[in-house]
Inverse folding.
């Protein structure tokens, strides 16, 4: 067991510009803060003492930026921010792997934190306050994934967490009341009809539900995953509507009889017909060649509104990341190519004085302001696209607020964050292959972490209905590098053509494995038996429910025939991408999750109960009379009107949303947003090529 921690100081953690921005945030809390500085600090968790040679090697590996002396006005150390106790950060998993491959066997794990220095009268205020009671410390860390250390006691980094146990909800004489209590406590967003449905189901099972089963049901049947509102029965002004919202969306597809469309409304992205083109990729002998392939075009758009409202940077980053995974998880595997990002918010209120069109209506405490969303959200989306390696070539930005005649204000305090894109897929991989009973069910990508718990249900609630802690817990965190590794595995498998070992693939999004794995086996018309302890886990303290339902990002689930498993494993190991066989397909259409560590069964539910036909939602509304006021155009000052229009965000330049990302990566971009010798961002269209030696795209 690791017994000692050695500390090595690293380069500055933030640029001067970001330090200046952070100083402004801290001064809003305490004007006594005069300066701020942050540097990385590395924790080497050792099995044995380091030799001099090993220590030099460790220092060399951890020298990845220039050192900088502390500014004169910065005082004593204020705190150190480390990963949350009992967890392994994504940075640590990558760095520890590098240390192991460099032969540093004395190092069991290397972890990274940030040491913060503050200048001013607060510099010596190093009291061990609770994280949430210290507003300054709260601004210096992400309480979902990090913790603050005031006394330089880093022993918690080496402590093994004790796994929290599975909980059972006792139904007794009042099943509905017990389930309603669990619904509120866990933030499940279940309707009364769904609570009654579960009460009847568990009465038939003759047992009490586990928290893992309830959370799984809530995520799998959330608005986010099942589009309950879009599939609802609607009654308008007393008249039943013949089509649901989703039926109206599908109407165009049905009217053209699906002509030119290979897949729609049935997979993670839609696919339309493409053409044969020469694609450049390594073949089975690992030699890059141009190979003629019948390649089709896939497309996807989705939203990530709730997480972006709570935490704009990670919310928008994981919104783009989730959409990229959807593009890579079509049929038997596909490839994302170009992206789009869009935002609709309330008015920005940038300056000390309101613009004439701004209302100053305020906002709920638990969500970010429109200004914060547009400062951080686009950076998060651009960063993920950049780090993953996908150009972002399209998008939009709009603001809106209005006051009705009755004085009620409407706007987008909860923003619309749109992520979308296009990709490519080879013809043999458009549809899934048969998944035989006994096939191995695999999780590809990063480990489980206690982040994004209950995101599907949280995003299905009206803003303000859930507890603020549940809101924050429902926001995921991003790791684009891990997602790139996963995509390389998918690419290598797809390059095998008909010999592709992947029979069926899904991405892990809302609801985590509790939604992805049941969907996988359901789409394959089989059941699944799983071992919760086979899931890669960076937080050993998590309960079975938390392992099963967390929304740790950059993961895919897939079915691989037992005889093809060695081929898949060889590819994953070559790309150094983590994976685990977590279960196998069964003939009985049932989801069974065993716990080999705690000797229990967190989940045992028929797929028909989980994904069958829970009660259909009924929605009704009454049309209100629309009143309009006459438009007095003679009162308008033309010069002032022109100035206002040109400064309005919908009309003003969107260049600040475009130049934050690489628009040429992949080498397949024929037309981006910038036009002409002065590179003005006025292009009406983005164009990508299907290959390096073709005019098709």
């Amino acid at each position: 067991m690791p017994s000692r921690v050695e500390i090595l100081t690293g380069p500055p953690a933030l640029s001067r510009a970001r330090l200046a921005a952070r100083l402004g945030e801290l001064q809003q809390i305490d004007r006594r803060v005069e300066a701020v500085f942050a540097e990385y600090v590395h924790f080497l968790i050792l099995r044995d003492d380091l030799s001099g040679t090993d220590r030099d090697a460790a220092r060399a590996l951890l020298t990845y930026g220039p050192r900088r002396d502390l500014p004169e006005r910065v005082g004593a150390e204020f705190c150190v921010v480390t990963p949350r106790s009992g967890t392994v950060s994504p940075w640590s998993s990558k760095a520890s792997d590098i240390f192991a491959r460099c032969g540093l066997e004395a190092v069991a794990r290397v972890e990274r934190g940030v040491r913060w220095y503050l200048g001013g009268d607060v510099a010596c205020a190093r009291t061990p306050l609770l994280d949430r009671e210290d507003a300054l410390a709260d601004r210096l860390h992400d309480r979902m994934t990090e913790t603050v250390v005031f006394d330089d006691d880093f022993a918690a980094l080496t402590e093994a967490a004790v796994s929290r146990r599975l909980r059972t909800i006792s139904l007794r004489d009042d099943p509905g009341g017990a389930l309603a209590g669990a619904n509120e406590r866990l933030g499940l967003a279940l309707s009364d009809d769904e609570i009654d449905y579960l009460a009847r189901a568990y009465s038939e099972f003759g047992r009490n539900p586990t928290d893992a089963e309830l959370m799984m049901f809530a995520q799998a049947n959330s608005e986010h995953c099942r589009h309950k509102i879009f599939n609802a029965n609607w009654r308008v002004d007393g008249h039943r509507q013949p089509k649901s919202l989703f039926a109206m969306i599908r109407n165009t597809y049905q009217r053209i009889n699906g002509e030119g469309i290979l897949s729609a409304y049935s997979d993670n992205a839609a696919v339309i017909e493409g053409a044969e083109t020469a694609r450049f990729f390594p073949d089975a002998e690992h030699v890059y060649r141009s190979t003629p392939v019948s390649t089709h075009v896939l497309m996807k758009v989705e939203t990530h509104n709730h997480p972006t409202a709570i935490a704009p940077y990670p919310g928008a980053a994981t919104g783009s990341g989730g959409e990229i995974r959807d593009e890579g998880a079509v049929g038997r595997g596909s490839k994302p190519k170009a992206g789009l990002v869009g935002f609709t918010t309330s008015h920005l209120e940038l300056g000390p004085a309101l613009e004439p069109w701004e209302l100053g209506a305020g906002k709920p405490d638990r969500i970010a302001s429109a200004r914060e969303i547009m400062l951080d959200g686009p950076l998060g989306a651009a960063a993920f696209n950049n780090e993953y390696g996908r150009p972002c070539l399209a998008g939009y930005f709009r603001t809106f607020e209005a006051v009705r005649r009755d004085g009620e204000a409407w706007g987008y305090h909860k923003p619309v964050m749109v992520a979308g894109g296009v990709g490519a897929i080879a013809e043999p991989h458009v549809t899934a292959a048969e998944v035989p009973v006994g096939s191995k069910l695999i999780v590809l990508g990063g480990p489980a972490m206690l982040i994004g718990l209950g995101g599907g249900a949280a995003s299905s609630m009206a803003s303000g209905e859930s507890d603020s802690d549940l809101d924050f817990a429902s926001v995921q965190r991003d790791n684009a590098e891990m997602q790139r590794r996963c995509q390389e595995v998918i690419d290598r498998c797809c390059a095998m053509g008909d010999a592709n070992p992947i029979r069926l693939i899904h991405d892990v999004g809302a609801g985590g494995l509790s939604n992805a794995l049941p969907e996988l086996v359901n789409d394959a018309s089989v059941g699944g038996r799983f071992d919760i302890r086979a899931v890669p886990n960076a937080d050993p303290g998590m309960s079975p429910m938390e392992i099963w339902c967390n929304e740790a990002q950059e993961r895919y689930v897939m079915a691989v025939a037992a005889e093809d498993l060695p081929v898949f494993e060889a590819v994953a190991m070559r790309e150094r991408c983590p994976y685990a066989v977590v279960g196998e397909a069964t003939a009985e259409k049932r989801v069974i999750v065993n716990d080999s560590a705690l000797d229990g069964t967190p989940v045992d539910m028929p797929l028909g109960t989980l994904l069958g036909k829970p009660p259909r939602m009924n929605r009704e509304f009454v049309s209100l009379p629309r009143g309009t006021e006459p438009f007095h155009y003679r009162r308008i000052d033309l010069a002032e009107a022109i100035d206002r229009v040109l400064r309005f965000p919908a009309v003003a330049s969107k260049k600040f949303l475009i130049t934050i990302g690489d628009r040429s990566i992949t080498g397949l971009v024929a037309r981006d947003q910038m036009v002409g010798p002065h590179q003005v961002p006025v292009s009406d269209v983005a164009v990508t090529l299907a290959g390096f030696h073709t005019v098709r795209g």
In short: Residues 370-388 form the longest helix (19 residues). The longest strand covers residues 288-303.
